[in-house]
Design brief:
Number of helices: 18
Structural class: alpha/beta
Order of helices and strands: HEHEHEHHHEEHHEHHEHEHEEHHHHHH
Mean pLDDT: 92
Radius of gyration: 22 Å
Helix content: 40-55%
Length: 440
């Protein structure tokens, strides 16, 4: 069973974007290929999977199966780089030298930069065809492959989301009912206070204050549920310092500073370990957490995030299969056909579900393959259903990394009682706007 820890992935995304920020992704087109589609002509497409080990073995088997079904198609499949985070830099170099692939795995945070390269295909008309069943992907996943809303540059590859995980042992000890889909912010806060016991160093909730993306993306659902937005409508300036943002951060500050019911984790990882050992009552995390909890023998449950006014939005971290244009009708056609086939419900249960990720499509939740995984890792089915609450995507603008760092630092200061929510968010927005302006 292989999970993809969002904590690690988000850190790597930031490093990759920072490393390539000085590079120009645009460039002149390569040599013209087939101008008229011939579905029977021999064609070779290249794909960088970004995978290793079990995941790479599985995708190689699936590619070979597709080749068997389409004898004129050859798929040159490789990981593309020694690690996924290096793919963006390799793609950038490939754009400059006209040596980029037809298909590449990519972190969702790269989507805007990839579209801006002028090298991606626009498959909007194709994915709107009924047989694609585009609506089966979560809204956040769809938006990630449509970074500007003008083009669709690929298909979702991996989806995840944050759900509320609760420690049944501590809830039972405190005599509390378990959280459910009707929980409000007030229910959440009250339970955290009741679960907290200073004498035994037990906390009701755990939150990262490292200032990393882990700190930031834990906050976005509170902002969205309260009616706030990360960026302005034109994606040019920060909008999180709104009244909605201040209220959301004040709520977390009240829990952390006033109630002292929040374990403030400087490491991004210790809160999960303490939860597993019955020292924290609730955490917000994703499917990657379940393997460790099952291994530790923790008695846990999973539900959607606490909401406000019935809004239980969550945050998702979709990755994508990006499709690239080589001015060749045959390569374009078969690249699209392979990724459409790979991300179909029939194949995804043999790919994402088989390696322990959440299903890409809502229709897979009822599959036998997913039921087997959910039986082994209880709560996985609730996390899959929670994709319906992933209604908004994190921005993919080049300046997002700097924005995340600015607000992550502000959240950390506020939760540790070192700053006022309104003042901290205003200062963070000013820092973010400087970097957003630089990225234009």
């Amino acid at each position: 069973m292989t999970y993809h820890p969002q904590l690690k992935r988000t850190a790597l995304v930031g490093a990759a974007i920072a490393a390539v920020s000085a590079l120009t992704l645009t460039g002149c087109g390569g040599q013209q290929g087939a101008t008229t589609l011939d579905k029977d002509a021999p064609v070779t497409i290249t794909m960088w999977s970004g995978q290793t080990d079990e995941a790479q073995d599985l995708i190689e088997k699936l590619a070979a199966e597709f080749e068997d079904e389409h004898s004129n198609v050859t798929i040159e499949l490789s990981a593309g780089a020694s690690s996924t985070e290096q793919l963006l830099q390799k793609l950038s170099a490939g754009f400059a030298g006209n040596s980029y692939p037809d298909i590449s795995y990519a972190f969702g945070a790269w989507a805007s930069q990839l579209e801006a390269s002028g090298r991606t295909l626009d498959i909007t008309d194709k994915v709107n065809e009924p047989d694609v069943k585009w609506e089966e992907f979560s809204e956040a996943a769809r938006k990630t492959v449509q970074p500007t809303g003008e083009k669709t540059i690929g298909f979702p590859a991996i989806v995840d989301n944050l759900s509320l995980i609760y420690n049944k042992t501590l809830f039972d000890k405190a005599g509390l009912d378990y959280p459910d889909e009707n929980w409000s912010w007030d229910d959440f806060r009250d339970a955290a206070k009741t679960l907290t016991d200073p004498a035994s160093n037990t906390y009701g909730y755990g939150y990262s204050v490292s200032g990393s993306e882990e700190t930031t993306w834990q906050f976005w659902p509170h902002l969205w549920q309260n009616g706030g937005e990360i960026l302005s409508d034109d994606q040019q300036t920060a909008a999180f310092d709104s009244e909605a943002g201040v209220e959301a951060l004040t709520f977390l500050q009240d829990m952390a500073v006033t109630d002292k019911s929040v374990y403030l984790d400087q490491t991004d990882t210790k809160f999960g370990q303490l939860f597993a050992s019955d020292r924290i009552g609730m955490i917000t995390s994703g499917p990657w957490q379940l393997y460790d909890l099952v291994k530790a023998g923790t008695d846990y449950g999973v539900t959607v995030l606490p909401g406000t006014d019935g809004d239980h939005q969550t945050v998702s971290g979709p990755d994508i299969w990006a499709l690239f244009d080589h001015k060749d009708a045959n390569r374009e056609y078969w690249s699209y056909e392979f990724v459409k086939w790979l991300t179909s419900a029939e194949q995804d249960v043999r790919w994402n579900v088989a390696i322990g990720n959440l299903p890409l499509r809502s229709s897979e939740v009822d599959s036998e393959e997913f039921a087997e995984q959910a039986a082994q890792y209880p709560g996985l089915e609730i996390m899959a259903a929670n994709n319906e609450n992933a209604q908004k995507a994190r921005p993919t603008v080049p300046g997002y990394v700097n924005l995340s760092e600015a607000i992550g630092s502000a959240i950390s200061q506020v939760l540790q009682g070192q700053s006022d929510p309104a003042e901290a968010l205003k200062a963070a927005a000013e820092k973010a706007n400087e970097k957003l302006g630089d990225s234009k």
